[in-house]
Amino acid sequence: MAGLASPPLETPTRNQSQCHRWFQKADHRGEGVTGSRIRMLRLPDWVWKMTCRSAPRAGLWWASYSLSPLALLSDFWLRPDPLGYSRTRPFPGLPGSRSGQMGSASSRALSMLALLNKWFWKDEYWFPPGYSWADMKETDEIKYPQPQDLLMALPVAMVMVAVRYTFERFVGLPLSRLLGVRNQVRLKAPPNPVLEAFFLLQSKTPKEDQLLSLSRQCDLSVRQVERWFRCRRNQDRPCMTKKFCEASWRFAFYLCSFFGGLAVLHDKPWFVEPKLCWDNYPYQPLMPSLYWWYILELGFYVSLLLTLPLDVKRKDFKEQIIHHFVTITLMTFSYCANFLRIGTLVLLLHDVSDYLLEACKMFNYTQWRKVCDILFIIFALVFIVSRLVLYPTKVLYTTYYESMVTFKPFLGYYFFNGLLMVLQVLHIFWSYLILRMVYKFTIAGQMEKDERSDVEEVLTDDEREHLPNGADHLSSTSNNNYAPKSRAEGPRHLANGHLKAT
C-alpha cells in the first residue's frame, strides 16, 4: 500500500511552506520499504488534504495521511466526518489568498457537506430498523456491497460508448449492407434564409398564421412553404442505416446480458422462489458475478443516457429519459442497500424481451416482413408475460408483502417500491402501444410502422415538382416510395390542380 514519507531535508521558504509540502512516495511491501523509485511530489497543501485520507497515527502530521484514489468521494460516502478535520482546524485558504476568508468559507462549505452527508446516509433511510451501515463492514472473509464500488460504472460507461461506436462502424454497418438495408434518397430543401431561420429558431412545424406570414415574407404560396418545411424535416430524420446500427448494438448487448444473467442465476435459490431474496438479509455476501453484472448493466444505461441526444429520437423520448433515470437510480439504491437478489430478477425480466424487440427492428429495417412479423408476435407475448404477469406477481409482490414478513417498513422500502411502480407504469404504457400494433396487424394483415418511430413524411409527385426556388426533381428509380403510379390508376390530379372525386 502506498504511503507518504517525511519531507526532504531542504527547508522551503515561508511563502512556500504556507502553500506547498514536499512528499515522498515509496512502494511498501509488508513491513519494509522496497524498490528504488522515489517520486517527489510538490503540490499545494489543500490538494493533499482533498486527495489523502486521514488516519489516527502517531508522529508528525504528514504521517497521518495516506494516498487513496477518490478519497474525497469515498470519505463522504463512508465517514460521518468526511475529511476527518476538526472544527478547530479550519480548512486553509488557497495559495495566494491574502486572508483567511477563503479558508473560513471552505470550512463552512465542508461543514455543510458533512451535515448533508450525515443526513443522506442515515441508517434508517437505507436499512430496516435494527440494522445499520456497521453491519455492512467488510472483512477478509466476507465482502458486502459498498457504495463506492459503483464508481466503477463511470469508466465502464465511457468504455461502452467507445465500444458501441466501434461496433456500429465495423459490425453494424457491414451487416446492414449485407442484409440489404437501403437509405431513402431525399430531396434537399432549396436554400431560403428566412425559412431556415424560422425552422432552426422557432418551430419545425409552423401554424397556419405563421405559414401566411412566411409566405408573404418569401413571396411564396402557402403550399410552397408547407412543402419546404416537409422536405426540410425529412432532411434531419435519421437514415435506415443509422437506425439499424443502433438496433444491432442494443440487440448484441441485451442478448449477451440476458443469457449471461441466466447463466448466473439459474442455480440460485431465489431464481425460482423470489421470497428467498430476503433470507438472512442484509447479511448476504457480494458475489463477483453479481457485481460485474450490475456494473456492466449500470454502465450500459449510463452510456444510453449520455448518447440519448445523439440517438434516433422517437415519440416516447420523454418516457425513455424517465426509464433510464429510474433504472439508474433503482440499480444504485438496490446495490447500496444490498437488494442485489431482487435487483437481478428485475434485470433478467427486462432483458428477456428487449433483445427480441431490437431483432424485430433490425428485420423491419431490412424489409424482411415475414420474419419481422413472426418476431414481433413472439416479442409481444414475451413482453406481456414478463412485464404484466411475472413482474407484478413475482417482483412487486415479494417487495411489497413478503419482505415485510420479517422487517418493518422504512424509508428505503417506500422509495424502492415507488421506483418499481414507476417502471410498471411505463410497462403498461408500452404494452398499450404493442397491443395497438398487434390489433393493426391482425386487422390490416401486415405489420404497421413502429408506434414510437419518427415516420418520414412522403412528398407526392405534384409537391416534388412544385418545390420553391426550383428544387431538383427526384428520379423515379432512386426510391421505391417515390415510384410512379401505374397507368391503370390513371392521373390523380386534374389539369386545374384539383383532386379527382373518389
What do you see in this structure?
The chain is mainly alpha-helical. Among the domains are: 141-181 and 238-444, no CATH class; 187-236, Homeodomain-like (Arc Repressor Mutant, subunit A, Orthogonal Bundle). It contains 17 helices and 7 strands. Strand 3 (28-29) and strand 4 form a beta hairpin. The longest helix has 34 residues, at 411-444. The model is unreliable at 1-42, 50-100 and 451-502 (pLDDT under 50). Its main location: endoplasmic reticulum.
* Count of individual beta strands: 7
The number of helical runs is: 17
Q: Assign a percent range to the helix content.
A: 40-55%
Spatial arrangement of strands, main beta sheet: 1-2-5
Average pLDDT reading: 74
Strand content: 5-15%
Shape: globular
Task: Characterize the quaternary organization of these chains.
Answer: single chain
Biggest beta sheet attributes: 3 strands, antiparallel
Radius of gyration: 31 Å
Uncertain spans: 1-42, 50-100, 451-502
Order of helices and strands: EHEEEEHEEHHHHHHHHHHHHHHH
